[in-house]
Amino acid sequence: MESLIAAKVGDTSSLFSDPISVQGNQLIDEATRRFLIVDQKCTGFALIATLSALLLSLPNTLLRKLLSVIVIIVLLQLENLIRINHLHHILVTKEASFHYDHFYVWQGINFVYAIIVFFTTYYMFYSNSRYRKGHSEVG
């Protein structure tokens, strides 16, 4: 999975910066030879699993639950591609700020974005649900 994410970052890198060479799960800048390794922690699966479990635990139809998980996966992976592209760009241009951006800036962004994704998905698939507390099925 890490190699697939690295390949997608390589495909989208030309939108943000110079193209990136991809070898397996490594993103390599040809000019500086600096590289970023996309490992298991970079997949975003822990955050996807957390938000998915939260929404799946709420009462709703199976279809709405599955759709909400798909939306979560798409939105969080889009943000993840932007994050990894940015981190690679920072590594190549301002190596000194890489660790700060990686461990503080993007963790904060991930936290806020996860809350936005949760509430967006909740309102898309759960706010009008017939399973909402206090809503009678008898009509």
Compact overview of the structure:
The chain has 139 residues and is mainly alpha-helical. It has helices spanning 2-16, 45-56, 62-93, 98-125, and strands spanning 21-23, 26-28, 35-37.
Describe this structure in words.
With 139 residues, the chain is mainly α. The protein has one domain (2-125). Helices cover 63% and strands 6% of the residues. The chain is built from four helices and three strands; from the N terminus they run αβββααα. It has helices at residues 2-16, 45-56, 62-93, 98-125; strands at residues 21-23, 26-28, 35-37. Helix 3 runs antiparallel to helix 4 (98-125). The mean pLDDT is 85.
Features:
139 residues, mainly alpha, three-stranded antiparallel sheet, 4 helices, 6% strand, elongated
Into how many domains do the coordinates divide? 1
Q: Let me know the average pLDDT.
A: 85
Determine the strand fraction and express it as a percent band: 5-15%
N-to-C SSE series?
HEEEHHH
- Note the total helix count: 4
**Largest sheet data:** 3 strands, antiparallel
Give a count of the beta strands, DSSP E runs of length 2 or more.
Answer: 3
Low-confidence stretches: none
Q: Kindly name the structural category.
A: mainly alpha
Relative helix content: 55-70%
N→C terminal distance: 48 Å
Spatial arrangement of strands, main beta sheet: 1-2-3
Radius of gyration: 18 Å
Which term fits the overall shape?
A: elongated
